[in-house]
Design a protein that fits this description.
Layout: E1 9-13, H1 20-24, E2 30-36, H2 37-51, E3 57-64, H3 70-80, E4 86-92, H4 94-107, E5 111-115, E6 127-131, E7 137-142, E8 149-153, H5 154-159, H6 162-182, H7 190-218, H8 224-243, H9 252-261, H10 266-269, H11 272-286, H12 290-303, H13 319-329, H14 343-354
Parallel strand pairs: 1-8, 2-3, 2-4, 4-5, 5-8
Antiparallel strand pairs: 6-7
Helix pairs in contact: 3-4, 6-7, 6-8, 6-11, 7-8, 9-11, 9-13, 11-12, 11-14, 13-14
Amino acid sequence: MSQSVFYCNYTIGEDAYAQLPQICRAHGQRLLVIGGETALQRALPALEHAVEGSGLSIDRVLRFGGECTEAAVESLTAACLPADGAVVVGVGGGKALDTAKAVAARLGRPVVTLPTIAATCAATSALSVLYHPDGRHDRFLQLEVPPLHCFMHTGILAQAPSMYLRGGMGDALGKFFESHFVSRGVPLGHASALGRQISVRGHDAVLLYGLQAMVDCENGEDSPPLREVVLANIVTTGLASLLLEERYSGGVAHSIAAGLAEIEGMEQRALHGDLVGYGVLVQLVLDDGEERAVGLSLFLRRIGIPVCLGDLGLGEDDALLGMALRIAADFPDMANLPYPVDAQRLYEAVLRLERLP
């Protein structure tokens, strides 16, 4: 049985969009731009400048807002027709990019991504996360191929609120800790072994450059540390996801994040990557890694990722915590752990984490 692996190429720099015509021209002459309102305000002028005189034309600009839902994908797909000779251009954060990728898949057209925040690896992954209109998780939509190319305009990314960079670091750390946990003792094939090893670079870059990158982002400065963390958040984590078998790509951290995200108001208090970062600590304690959890929590606390229930606005006896842990225990990623873990064991790990120094 054959196996195919597809990668997302990338360009990073303050003039990243200048390379877009060269990349897209071989695939189509018309650009169908899909993005969030704020993202388009920031990125569209630079995109228009890059396209000017290139032989490409921006055929449509479709503004996306809200959740990446089945209805949104269907509506935007219809709005893009006819799509012959077109390239879809996704602009914005994870939900906008996931929507653009899903639309491109429905159209059977290539997609390129222009992330305006570095909060997730959505710009490079072959996955769209679908939600219900009320924000509840719906399902994962596995795509046949990742985006053709990712263009990271570091001038724009450096101006984004630093909380998004922080969230991306939590997600990058999750990929490292989860992939190593769920694949422990497993003789991995080439692709998954390579993906797991790539996640090491994400982990190392975040810990090495993360603090300075946060300072630089808060100052709106495009710097080498900022670029290293942007690459860790968007490219390294995305490459690991593309290479790892699905069963090795998630674990306790993303399950905890999924459960906590179901709590009303949590989305206003913490980003996805913040919840993943907290989930990493729970996973470490669950697996008797208290010493490593203590060390990691010092770093997470410094960049602003929650390290205890109080940071999440929850208490040990909070009914909402129990609900979140039950949801987490039933999340699909939990089926891939090296040993059975139920909601009670997750709760015990949370309590042990609360008592760490």
